[in-house]
Structure formats: structure tokens, C-alpha cells
Design goal:
Number of helices: 9
Distance between the termini: 42 Å
Helix content: 25-40%
Radius of gyration: 24 Å
Strand content: 15-25%
Structural class: alpha/beta
Strand order of the largest sheet: 1-3-4-2
């Protein structure tokens, strides 16, 4: 089941999340040899050619399928979709999800505290442990706030709609490529969930914190994208499962001399990334000729240009300057020109 088969409101939220994920993917890889370029858009009508994989593999250039670039693509797009569906739920734009105090209990607060890596609790000027916060939440009966993001709804709905039938007991019978994609999509959702913020606000006379109200808030998606890129650099190349061995097929393994079970938080791939320096129409690789590398170091620019060198140009750009605020409520700015160094990889 794909995005186009979702309910209209959910499909709109999912597409918004997908586009947001690609935006951050492009930003994170702007100065890498692969700049998050795709072969086609997911919202275009799929071709009539048979595709063995039930995932949206034909979105990626053929030369990048099952590589660590594909792993990042699946992780960040599924994280973006979950993020956007959760946000739509909070704004009460989707059906079947609960927000605020309805459906929540103190157990949910404690579970959120244990899950969250990021805690924002005002009026505490000392570093406190997670166990200390749990004890305080129990003793003081912290309450769940009215504006919580329903994180679970976004995660579950995106999984159900996009990978329905893949996450069951028969997942180990899927083709290796599908199992790989399924693993990487779940990595993206895990990173998204771990980045969620738990925010607590104090209530009482003169901020005495007689009562605390807590709610979960989605992190800036930039943080999710950055963490996924860090995981991308540490992605593991896994071996194909051995046929006929049910116990072995339950997991993905990496390592040639000593096989190790893949961690749930690690991105995985089976194919080595092809040469990204040269253009290849057959593989769908755009190459790096003509790419801009103006805002990075010379060493990084040389690496992006694959040792071919780059040309330097001085261009005049117009920017706003000398801005003034006028009461009320206008901002007037002058237009200034400045010289900017532009570096382009040689063709």
C-alpha cells in the first residue's frame, strides 16, 4: 500500500512529510558526491514495468538500490512521514488519533520520560538523572498536557499504510532487498521517536512548581536528519541470509570474518556504492561535474570534484542591508551589493 491509497487527509500529511524529508536530505548531502538526487518522484504514476520489490525502489537511481544511500533515503522519508502525520493528528486533521489528556495516564508520562533522550524542565538549575525525574513524577503526580504530539500514531500509521504486511512473522521470508528496506525504514522511525522532546511546565504560586504539566513535542526535523546522517556514515554492509535456515533468516548479519547480528539502530546495505564521480546514464548517476562547492573548505571541494579541480569566479550578489523597524509595523531595508566567491567543479 502506498501514499496514493491512503485517506486523502492522511495522504496529504504523508506527502508533506515526504517532501520535507527530501528537502533535509538535499541539505545534508549538498556537499557530498550523492546530493540526494532521485530518478523520479514518488507521487508520479508508476510505470507498468514489473518491480520485484514492493517498496518504492524505482524512485532511486538503479545504481543506488540496496546501497547505503538507499538506506538513508528509506530512513529519512519514513521518519518525515511519521513526523508529519503526528503533527496532523495534533492539529486534529486526521481521524482515529487521540491528543491531550484523553487516552493518557501517568504510566504514559513515565514511559515518555524513559524513552525521551531530551528533557526540558524549567526551574531546575541542576543536572538531574532520568531516575530522579521518574521518582519526582511519581511522587508529585505530574499531569499530561493538552498539546502532546501523538508520536505513536504517526509511527504506527506510517508503518501500517506503507509497509502493511511486512512487519509480521513472515518478514524473514521477504526477498533480501525488501528485508533490507524494511529494516532501514524502522531505523528512521526509531531515530525520529528518540529525538522527541519531553517538556514540563511548573504551576503554582510564584513558580513554586506545586504542579507540573508535561507534554511531548516533536524535535526540529533538522536534528533527525543530522542524526540519520551520522548513522549513515557508520552503515554496515550485511550478507545475504542463508536459504533454508529459519533461525539465521530472522536477523541480518554483517562482517566477513566474524559475523555479527545487526543492531536495530544501524543502517544496512548489501551493495557497494558505485563511482559517483562520473556520470552514468545506465546507473542513473549524475556525477559531480559542474557542482558548486562555494561554502566548504578547499579540501572538501577537491574531494567533491573528485580531484579534477574547480574554477573560481567572482560574482556580484544583491542582499538586503541597513534594515530599520518603523512603528508600526514596517521594516525597510536598503539593497547592497557584495562580491562572492563561486567555485564550480570542472567539467
Amino acid at each position: 500500500m502506498g501514499i496514493c491509497s491512503m485517506e486523502p487527509v492522511v495522504a496529504s500529511a504523508a506527502m508533506k512529510g515526504y517532501k520535507m524529508a527530501l528537502k533535509y536530505c538535499t541539505a545534508e548531502f549538498a556537499h557530498e558526491k550523492w546530493n540526494c538526487s532521485l530518478a523520479r518522484n514518488i507521487w508520479e504514476e508508476k510505470s507498468n514495468t514489473k518491480n520485484v520489490s514492493k517498496f518504492d525502489d524505482n524512485v532511486l537511481p538503479s545504481g543506488l538500490r540496496d546501497t547505503k544511500e538507499a538506506a538513508f533515503y528509506y530512513a529519512i522519508t519514513r521518519a518525515g512521514i511519521a513526523h508529519s502525520i503526528s503533527e496532523a493528528c495534533t492539529k486534529q486533521q486526521t481521524e482515529g488519533c487521540k491528543i491531550g489528556t484523553e487516552g493518557f495516564s501517568q504510566d504514559n508520562i513515565l514511559r515518555a520520560i524513559r524513552k525521551s533522550q531530551n528533557l526540558i524542565i524549567p526551574l531546575l538549575n541542576q543536572v538531574v538523572s532520568r531516575s530522579w525525574i521518574v521518582k519526582k513524577a511519581i511522587a508529585e503526580e505530574w499531569q499530561w498536557g493538552n498539546a502532546s504530539h501523538n508520536i505513536e500514531h504517526g509511527i504506527k500509521y506510517s508503518r501500517k499504510q506503507l509497509e502493511d504486511g511486512f512487519n509480521g512473522k513472515h518478514a524473514n521470508r521477504l526477498p533480501t532487498s525488501d528485508r533490507l528496506n524494511l529494516h532501514n525504514t524502522n531505523v528512521g522511525r526509531r531515530v525520529y521517536e528518540k529525538a522527541v522532546l519531553l517538556v514540563c511546565k511548573c504551576h503554582g504560586m510564584s513558580g513554586s512548581c506545586a504542579t507540573r504539566t508535561c507534554w511531548r513535542r516533536q524535535a526540529d526535523f533538522r536534528k533527525v536528519a543530522r542524526e540519520l546522517k551520522n548513522i549513515y556514515f557508520a552503515a554496515k554492509r550485511v550478507s545475504k541470509p542463508q536459504s533454508g535456515n529459519r533461525n539465521t533468516n530472522r536477523y541480518l548479519y554483517y562482517g566477513s570474518k566474524r559475523r555479527r547480528k545487526l543492531n536495530k539502530g544501524q543502517l544496512a546495505f548489501t551493495r557497494k556504492t558505485p563511482n559517483l564521480c562520473q556520470r552514468s546514464n545506465r546507473l542513473g548517476i549524475t556525477g559531480t561535474r559542474g557542482r558548486s562547492c562555494s561554502n566548504i573548505s578547499e579540501a572538501a571541494c577537491q574531494r567533491l570534484c573528485c580531484g579534477r579541480g574547480y574554477t573560481t569566479h567572482l560574482v556580484r550578489v544583491q542582499t538586503k542591508c541597513d534594515c530599520e523597524f518603523s512603528w508600526c509595523c514596517d521594516v525597510t531595508c536598503s539593497t547592497c551589493e557584495k562580491l562572492q566567491v563561486l567555485r564550480i567543479c570542472q567539467r
